[in-house]
Amino acid sequence: MKISLCTITFRHHLVSLEDIARWAGANDFQGIELWGAHARNLAYQPQCDADWLAGQGLYVPMVSDYLPLDGDAETLRKKTVDLCRLARHWRAGKIRTFAGSRGSRDTPAEVRRILTARLHEVAGMAADFDLELLAETHPGTLADCGASTLRLVAEVDHPAFKINFDTLHVWEGGDDPVAAHSAMRPHIRHYHLKNVRSRADLRVFEPANVYAAAGSREGMTPLFDGKVDYRRFLAELRDDPTVEASLEWFGNDCFNVLRSDRQAIKRLKSPNEVLLRTGSF
């Protein structure tokens, strides 16, 4: 499993990509997932590119942004092209967006039809750049639960349209992450990994709070300290070299938490190791 950190972690920090990359390489991260806002600003720093990052043993697996699917169609096309060009600049293979701005139960059938048609068009544009378009499993979107996410894949019906499996949000939507993962796995191309103290704390991840510099971080926990059972979830993934995942930490004490979570993932035992240690076959 290839593990990246997300530059969105440092959205309110005065820290350079050079410093982040140096730290990531020294702490056994393989990649850096670029937040779209950061990717756009880095375009003005020509010394920072995919070759420079590769020289440090790192790569960009995905550029994560928010395409305006609900807005003007021509604006959507322009922003999609711009995002695809940024992803190509970094030699990323994927771009990420959200599937609309309303939950599946709150989206009228005609609005859903328009959104899925636009996702189909955007996926085609991404494919023209040799990229995949990923919709993230997230509340307040058409990918807010397992059933709607699988329906979304069928409705968009494009080979370049895939899923960014945010494990916490799948759990938030009422699905068992392991069972949902089994059903969605053919369509998954990336994973976001984060955790929370309790269901009562899920509001801490609402965008209005997460993106606010003075927002609360109370209830965000290191990966293996929260309600989602990541030991169980990662058991079948950690030894798969094709799996790409990002530690999506939004809280305080970034470097220490990311370092600790990365080391904890490395210490996980695979199912075969557990069987050998217990003598059970």
From TrEMBL:
It is an enzyme of class 4 (lyase). Keywords: Lyase. One of its GO terms (molecular function) is 3-dehydroshikimate dehydratase activity. Residues 26-256 form the Xylose isomerase-like TIM barrel domain. InterPro entries: IolE/XylAMocC-like, Xyl_isomerase-like_sf, Xyl_isomerase-like_TIM-brl. PANTHER family: HYDROXYPYRUVATE ISOMERASE (PTHR12110), XYLOSE ISOMERASE-LIKE TIM BARREL DOMAIN-CONTAINING PROTEIN (PTHR12110:SF21). This is 3-dehydroshikimate dehydratase. It comes from Aminobacter aminovorans (Chelatobacter heintzii).
